[in-house]
Specification:
This protein is mainly β and 176 residues long. It contains 2 helices and 8 strands; from the N terminus they run βββββαβββα. The C terminus is likely disordered.
Amino acid sequence: MRQKSRVAAYAVCVRDGQLLLARSPAPDGTPEWVLPGGGMEHGEDPLDTVVRELDEETGYRVEVTALLGIDSSRHVFPREGLRGPVDHHGIRIVYEGRVTGGELRYEVGGTTDLAAWHDLDAVPALTRVRLVDVALAMWRQRPADGRVSVPAPAVPAPPASPPSSPSSAPETAGPA
């Protein structure tokens, strides 16, 4: 199985009780809210990454005011194109940022299509990636070791199917 690591840097920008988020399509195409930020280029400093990514995705210039922590996630994806399964390890560096200039705009030709401020109280109702919750916990708790525990979202149970009797054959669709 192939192994792949990705290091990325993100920023929590809170202003007047609102959090800055960007919108990106999930693998199935559903729009979901993400922290502004993204992958480091080879040789790039993580602080430079977050400043560049915030500008690209939101139009804002930011000053990094704190290192909040590092989140690590690992997932095995069954296939990546024709190359088979991949064991993916994401290392996400989370900063606190303060907007110092620029104007809110949307990214063109990138991984996000919208940027917006959201009331902190409204964030739990948004369709969002787990990193948003992790980063907000880091921002609120300021853990000395830079790690927080945020439970994974509950996966809904599949609907119960009615009991079948041994003598009943399954129904099939098709020509009669």
